[in-house]
């Protein structure tokens, strides 16, 4: 595997974005910060049809969302306590390995992998699950289960057991760990994963959390943000910059990452905001 360090332009420890794309910043860190909720995010990638590199699946969140409203994001969300169910079938790197990658307890590592599989299915219809020897190609047969997962009336473990499926952790790779700054009223300890779109599957916009979805080259997504056509949170911006430097999904998945916990510091500098990592 090829080591590919965290990037960010000339200085890997900082980068800048237009001030217009960053939500209003709190000026003071509270003495008792809100605890950061464990969450999982997946960067779905596919090879561009014209051979120009990779594309990523993005969603523009509806403006009624309590967190990151109107922002363009990757699919993801908070960990549900049922995501830690140890009965779930599993193929690929064991929870203990994910715990080492993300420097967290093994039960949490299991929950993070299950959460990202669940969130990917709920928000994009992409199911990173299958039998021990094959990956689901036609996810439409599980439309009712997807709705039940989204409503919370069905857990991932229950769905997979009923369908005779297992989590395919071998389809996922660890990418990053971003933590919302302490001055924010809503905070997340987000572990980022990457996964290639499984053959035969289609990512869709059938979620109430997004007003639009698309596949886009990372450089084009960043250009949209620079031009004011989209808004990106700093972790999304930085991840797009990193992913856009690869020529194929094979290269993305072969990237060996050293995961560190990043709580960025945002400093306004005129019309731009400097993000210090």
From TrEMBL:
* Record keyword Metal-binding present: yes
Q: Which UniProt keywords apply?
A: Hydrolase, Magnesium, Manganese, Metal-binding
One GO molecular-function entry = hydrolase activity, acting on acid anhydrides, in phosphorus-containing anhydrides
Q: Which cofactor does it need?
A: Mg(2+); Mn(2+)
Q: Which InterPro entries match?
A: NUDIX_hydrolase-like_dom_sf, NUDIX_hydrolase_dom, NUDT19
Coiled-coil intervals: none
Locate the Nudix hydrolase domain: which residues? Answer: 35-238
Name of the protein: NUDIX family protein
UniProt organism field: Saccharomonospora azurea NA-128
């Amino acid at each position: 595997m090829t080591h590919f360090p965290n990037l960010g332009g000339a200085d890997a420890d900082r980068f800048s974005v237009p001030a217009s794309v960053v939500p209003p910043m709190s000026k003071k860190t509270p003495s008792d910060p809100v605890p950061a909720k464990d969450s999982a995010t997946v960067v779905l990638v596919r090879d561009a049809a014209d051979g120009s590199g990779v594309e990523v699946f993005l969603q523009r969140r509806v403006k009624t969302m309590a967190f990151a409203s109107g922002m363009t994001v990757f699919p993801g969300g908070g960990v549900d306590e049922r995501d830690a169910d140890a009965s779930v079938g599993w193929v690929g790197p064991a929870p203990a390995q994910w715990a080492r990658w993300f420097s967290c307890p093994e039960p949490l590592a299991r929950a993070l992998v299950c959460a990202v599989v669940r969130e990917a299915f709920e928000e994009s219809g992409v199911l990173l699950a299958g039998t021990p020897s094959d990956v689901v190609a036609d996810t439409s047969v599980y439309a009712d289960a997807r709705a039940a997962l989204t409503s919370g009336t069905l857990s991932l473990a229950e769905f997979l057991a009923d369908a005779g499926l297992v989590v395919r952790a071998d389809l996922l790779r660890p990418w990053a760990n971003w933590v919302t700054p302490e001055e924010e009223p809503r905070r997340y300890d987000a572990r980022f994963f990457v996964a290639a779109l499984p053959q035969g599957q289609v990512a869709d916009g059938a979620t109430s959390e997004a007003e639009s979805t698309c596949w886009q080259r990372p450089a084009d997504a960043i250009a949209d943000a620079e031009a004011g056509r989209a808004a990106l949170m700093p972790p999304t911006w930085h991840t797009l910059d990193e992913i856009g430097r690869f020529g194929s999904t094979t290269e993305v998945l072969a990237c060996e990452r050293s995961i560190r916990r990043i709580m960025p510091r945002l400093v306004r500098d005129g019309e731009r905001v400097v993000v210090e990592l």
